Amino acid sequence: MEKNNNIGKYGRMRELFLKYNAPKTYREMKKSKELIPYLQNVDTIAAEMEEDLAQRMARADGLTEEIKETDPQKWIGLMNNYRMCAREIVIKDIIEV
């Protein structure tokens, strides 16, 4: 795996996925210097998708700033749940394709 601090968690996940599930593609991208920009792009898209999905789930369930102020424990618990659900969706839709 290439060492690059500019690649976030989703980029690193995608890199590992390619390395072990599409080794030929991984080697070709690495050799042609396309890998790092590709992984950075995947990371950006996946992180934005995770945030967007979590926010949409929260809005759909009626999670508001008022709840955040009146019952912060409930708000934190629900937001953590939405983020975990969103993360699973991102991994299945972007990382493992």
Topology:
Elements: H1 9-21, H2 23-31, H3 35-60, H4 65-70, H5 72-95
Helix pairs in contact: 1-2, 1-3, 3-5
Question: How would you sum up this structure, described in words?
Answer:
The protein is an all-alpha fold and 97 residues long. It has one domain. Helix content is 80%, strand content 0%. Helix 1 crosses helix 2 and helix 1 crosses helix 3. It is elongated, with a radius of gyration of 17 Å. The model has no long low-confidence stretch (mean pLDDT 94).
Question: How much of the polypeptide forms β-strand, as a percent range?
Answer: under 5%
Low-confidence spans: pLDDT under 50, at least 5 residues? Answer: none
Distance between the termini: 19 Å
Total separate domains: 1
Helix content: over 70%
In one word, what is the shape? elongated
What letter string, H or E per element, gives the SSE order?
HHHHH
pLDDT averaged residue by residue: 94
Compute the number of strand runs: 0
Structural class: mainly alpha
Attribute tags:
97 residues; mainly alpha
Short characterization:
The chain has 97 residues and is an all-alpha fold.
